[in-house]
Design a protein that fits this description.
The chain is built from three helices and no strands. The chain is mainly alpha-helical. About 0% of the residues are buried.
């Protein structure tokens, strides 16, 4: 019964796929008339001039900061020191997290032992 149901489903799907196809052969090449239609009306020349966008401003013209300052050896050393301090903070946080995980694991083991001890006294 299961085999005949599988065969029926496969046959139905094969027929559904066959119904989706078209009768045109795949080797038919597209002609330019099929791909691109000619314009009925010729294009008119552009007579408008571009205008400046008032919402955009040049930062340096308005007294802005301009380009960022060049990286100096001192600023690179400061950035390295800051990165080192951040790394130390992250290492300390990781050590705290590891200690908390270890404590949680120990508490879980103690709770499991307590539950097993209760089970033994009940039996």
């Amino acid at each position: 019964m299961k085999t005949s149901l599988t065969l029926a489903a496969l046959s139905a799907s094969a027929l559904a796929l066959a119904a989706c196809g078209s009768s045109d052969p795949a080797s038919t090449e597209a002609t330019p008339a099929d791909v691109e239609m000619p314009a009925n009306v010729p294009l008119e020349p552009v007579t408008e001039e571009p205008v400046d966008d008032e919402t955009l401003t040049d930062e340096t013209a308005d007294g802005g900061e301009g380009p960022p300052p060049a990286v100096t050896e001192q600023s690179a050393e400061d950035a390295a020191a800051e990165a080192s301090a951040k790394a130390e903070e992250l290492a300390a946080a990781a050590a705290e997290a590891e200690a908390a995980a270890s404590a949680a694991e120990d508490a879980g083991a103690a709770a499991l032992e307590a539950v097993e001890g209760i089970d033994e006294t009940v039996d």
